[in-house]
Each structure stands twice: as C-alpha cells, then as structure tokens.
Design goal:
Shape: elongated
Number of strands: 2
CATH class: Mainly Alpha
Strand content: under 5%
Structural class: mainly alpha
Number of helices: 5
Order of helices and strands: HHEEHHH
Helix content: over 70%
CATH topology: de novo design (two linked rop proteins)
Largest sheet: 2 strands, antiparallel
CATH architecture: Up-down Bundle
Number of domains: 1
C-alpha cells in the first residue's frame, strides 16, 4: 500500500471518528440520548458510569480530541512532511486501540449492552491502529 493511500485512510477514518465522537459529545451536553440503530443499548452504555470520566466529562470528548489530533497530524504531514506528525500517526493509535479494547470489553461483559456509535469508534480506532503499524514500518525503513 502506498504512503499516499495510507495518509488518505488517516484523514478519512480520523474524520469519521471525529464526527462520531463530536455527535455523541454534543448529544451528551444537550441532555439527549441519541437513537440506536442496529444494536440496542446505546442509552445503557452512554449513561453508564463508564460513559463519563472525572464525574461529568463524557468519554466521547476524549475521542473528539484523539481523532482531531490524528486528523491534524495527517494533514500536517501531507502538507509539510513534518516527522513529528508521522510519529503521532504511528504511535498514538496504539493508545487509541487499547482504550477501544477496554471500552468494548466494558460494553460486552460489564454493561451487557452495545452502542452503535461506540462500535463505530472502535472500528475507526482499529483501522487507525493498523494504518499506524504501516507508518511505523515505513519509519523503520527510512531510518
């Protein structure tokens, strides 16, 4: 896979993740439970104690910053070839995948409900992780 396609994947998938997390965050602060399609249980997941951090900060807000940072790093690398941006694209998705694994585990085995929006985020994180592995492989060849 060419590096151009890899960067396009980062831009598209991080933007989808950003939109997903932003939607959930806006709904949270609006006091609205978003409708759940395909799965049932979005309300249980989103309103659970695992849906918030530090009392009243929705978990989705962390996702907004995560996906936005990856999106900006991809755009910066496309524009400037800045190596720091490439490091972000290579290493940050590792943390994203670990958080996603934990949140999916909580949905399936603790909350016993599944949230469509959360699963979109988990798939996005997984794709970004796999793309990040290619970035790391690319970086090793260049060093």
């Amino acid at each position: 896979m060419g590096s151009r396609w890899l960067l396009i994947i980062f831009v598209i998938v991080s933007f989808v993740g950003f939109l997903d997390a932003t939607y959930l965050t806006i709904e949270y602060y609006s006091g609205v439970i978003p409708p759940c399609y395909i799965f049932t249980g979005c309300d249980q997941v989103i309103t659970s104690s695992y849906g918030k951090i530090a009392g009243n900060v929705p978990t989705s807000l962390i996702g907004v910053f995560y996906y936005l940072l990856l999106f900006i790093a991809a755009v910066i690398f496309i524009d400037t070839k800045n190596k720091r941006a490439l490091y972000i694209l290579g290493y940050l998705p590792i943390a994203g995948l670990l958080v996603s694994i934990r949140l999916v585990y909580l949905q399936f085995f603790v909350i016993h409900a599944t949230c469509l929006y959360c699963m979109v985020s988990a798939v996005s994180s997984t794709v970004l992780f796999l793309a990040g592995l290619y970035v790391l492989k690319f970086m090793k060849r260049k060093i």
